[in-house]
């Protein structure tokens, strides 16, 4: 009986000592983030033993989680403090989608010589984008760069006329076919020289931007497409006396990545065609990406 009592007493003492040793358990350090402020805190969680109160969290240090936009802004500010830097490379930006308007010697009303060029305003459109750029960023608010891209103007004609290929000056004849679609298209390699100013970055909005400059373009091709019940779809390629090199000016305004644009070309749409002298192109619309 005495041996049993001593054994029980030893077991009780051992359990008490073990309970005393594991009374407090400290977890590994973990990271907790405030989803509203973006703050990241390193904390140590202390879990007490049985009947010893509540869990304790000890804050060690506060860190800041920067968004990608904030990191970009910091890099730009650092570059500004060091001075300007060159900018160059491949891009896919300044994506234009707008309406094209024909101007006849400064008027949106076509003269008698150009009555056959009557078009459908809502379906005469401009589309283009830039794929290359090279320039210099002077500071965080101003940069100058030359870019290269492509530009299309689609003129949706009302009249059933066929433009003749390999003919100068521009010549056309009326067709006996009733066309459901008659579209004359010019494709240019565009080369705008951009002077861009931008504001500071506003939270939730981005930067306010304004850009303007001259633009030149080299003709790549001309196309006329037809669609009719009699002949189906047809497509013909020629330069159709489009101006080989056109020049003009543009302006862009936007907030964040969205904006509006307008372009006006100083020389005529067609060259070596005296009857179409003074017929020019003006486009405006929406833009995606500065």
Summarize the SSE layout with pairings:
Layout lengths: L1 H20 L3 E9 L5 E9 L8 E9 L3 H15 L2 E20 L20 E13 L4 E15 L4 E3 L8 E3 L4 E20 L9 E21 L3 E7 L6 E11 L2 E8 L13 E10 L2
Antiparallel strand pairs: 1-2, 2-3, 4-5, 4-14, 5-6, 6-9, 7-8, 9-10, 10-11, 10-12, 12-13, 13-14
InterPro entries: Beta-barrel_OMP_2
Keywords: Signal
Organism: Parapedobacter composti
Query: Which CATH architecture of the largest domain?
Result: Beta Barrel
Question: Considering DSSP H and I runs of 4 or more, what fraction of the residues is helical?
Answer: 10-25%
Mean pLDDT: 84
Beta-strand residue fraction: over 45%
The top-level CATH class of the largest domain is Mainly Beta
Task: Supply the number of structural domains.
Answer: 2
Over all CA atoms, what is the radius of gyration? 35 Å
Q: Strands of the biggest beta sheet: in what spatial order? A: 4-5-6-9-10-12-13-14
Write down the oligomeric state. single chain
Separate helix tally: 2
Query: How do the SSEs run, as a string of H and E?
Result: HEEEHEEEEEEEEEEE
Principal-axes shape call = elongated
In this structure, how is the largest beta sheet organized? 8 strands, antiparallel, barrel
For the termini, the CA-CA separation is 93 Å
Low-pLDDT regions = 1-13, 15-26, 61-65
Query: Which fold name corresponds to the CATH topology of the largest domain?
Result: Porin
The assigned structural class equals mainly beta
Query: How many extended strands?
Result: 14
Domain Outer membrane protein beta-barrel: 112-267
Keywords: Signal
Signal peptide: 1-19
Organism: Parapedobacter composti
């Amino acid at each position: 009986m005495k041996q049993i009592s001593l054994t029980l007493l030893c077991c009780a003492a051992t359990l008490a000592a073990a309970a005393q040793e594991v009374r407090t358990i400290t977890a590994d350090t973990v990271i907790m983030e405030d989803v509203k402020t973006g703050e990241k805190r390193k904390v140590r969680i202390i879990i007490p033993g049985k009947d010893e109160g509540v869990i304790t969290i000890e804050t060690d240090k506060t860190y800041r989680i920067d968004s990608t936009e904030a990191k970009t802004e910091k890099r730009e500010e650092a570059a500004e403090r060091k001075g300007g830097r060159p900018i160059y490379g491949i891009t896919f930006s300044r994506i234009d989608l707008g309406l094209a308007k024909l101007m006849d010697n400064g008027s949106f009303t076509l003269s008698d010589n150009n009555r056959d060029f009557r078009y459908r305003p809502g379906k005469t459109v401009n589309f283009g984008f830039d794929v290359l750029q090279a320039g210099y960023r002077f500071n965080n608010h101003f940069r100058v760069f030359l870019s290269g891209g492509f530009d299309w103007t689609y003129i949706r004609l009302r009249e059933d006329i066929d433009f003749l290929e390999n003919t100068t000056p521009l010549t056309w004849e009326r067709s006996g076919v009733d066309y459901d679609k008659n579209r004359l298209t010019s494709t240019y390699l565009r080369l705008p020289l951009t002077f861009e100013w931008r504001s500071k970055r506003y939270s939730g909005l981005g930067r306010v931007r304004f850009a303007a400059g001259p633009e030149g373009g080299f003709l790549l091709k001309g196309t006329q497409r037809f669609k009719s019940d009699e002949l189906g779809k047809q497509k013909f390629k020629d330069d159709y006396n489009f101006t080989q090199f056109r020049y003009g000016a543009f302006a862009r305004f936007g907030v964040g990545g969205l904006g509006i644009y307008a372009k006006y070309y100083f020389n005529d749409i067609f060259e070596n065609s005296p009857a179409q002298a003074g017929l020019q192109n003006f486009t405006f619309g929406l833009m995606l990406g500065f």
